[in-house]
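Hi P.,

Sorry for the delay on this. The queue was packed all week, but I finally got your sequence through. Input first:
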Amino acid sequence: MAFWGRRTREEQGQQDTADTELSRRARTALVAADERIRATGDELAFAAAELGDAATADLRAGLEAVRTHLTEAFQLHQLNHDEVPDTPEELRTRNARIVQLCDWAEGVLDERTSALQERIARVRRAPEILQRVRADVARLRERLPETAATVERLAERYSTAALQRLRMTTGEVEQLLDFAQHSAGVSERRRAAGKPEDANLALEAATETVRRAESIIDEVDGFEIEALRAQTTLSDVIADSRGDLAEARRGSRTGAVDDAVNRLEAALASVAAGTRRDPFADLALVSEANAALDAARERAARPIPSRQHVQHDVDTADRSIGVAAGLINGHRGWIGADARTRLAEAQRLRAEIGGVPDSEETREHVQQLARRTAHLANEAVQLAQRDIDSSRPDNDDWGWGNRGRNQGGGGGAAGILGPVIGGVILGGLLDDIFD
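Then the structure:
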């Protein structure tokens, strides 16, 4: 009996200690939560002054919910200290509930305030950001003459179909830079007038417009490099294709092989005609015809693909991904999910190719992956081109024969600035921006 009595006393002592600790935690949590509510109220006032009421609506709603639910915690604390005696179980249950409510309140306020920290920091850096926007505008204007010369050089060397991937003129870039500079001024004026929401939206429009203008200029340089690479790859593929044709004529002939030979010969004749060509389209045409001949010969003899053939297919896949990525990344806001999904899948397959060891047993698999990668990337280009075409106002081709068409008038500016503004609803700013 003495043993059991001692054990009961030890367990009761442990429970009393735990209850005392829980009571202390409940008091501490309640005091901390009450202080946090007061501090968050001050933060909300400052945030509303810097960001506006709409931007701080989530934090305001969260703070109101916390205040409402903590009323229950204060009521439970009051019951613990009134004149009515309570059992240990009642005190334990109330204190546990108080701790739970306070932890929940801290979590809600942490989530809502952290979501605003980056935006508040950005607003406080607004003068620095505006200075950088103006510096970027000046820097990009200095690049425009060189870009214009590059465009002229490309127009002499490549076909109109190839240059459609650029979709730009220096006049359009000028409009974007003018818009960015004007939006920066709007942001300053609206902030001085005590309209932080309008000021922040104008600041966002200015930074995004500069990003878009720089992307267009960089796209010209990138296009020239990618076009030269495509021409180099095309020369290799043409030489490889002529060798394949010679081997196909000497090897076993089937109806499928004959059809593939005729198709490849027609493709080679097509790319040899004319001077102003589209190297990307030519590369795709010859590569696909070459791949069809390889497939026909494989079906006839099932030989192991050579390392050179596989490498050509991998190079073609790389070029195709480069073209698709340049087009899609350079037209953010215009391109839909279909093109982006195909590009992402092509990039995933290309990464998978890099992890396959180089051996005779894996060449056929790598070749299939490379061809599938190139096919997806080419599809991404076609879908992106479709999205760009459908986004142009009134099917207006910004192309190379109508360079002066968008130099004036609100319609041209709105068409160009559409992908810049995107989902940003400037509201009352539009009258000021386009005045």
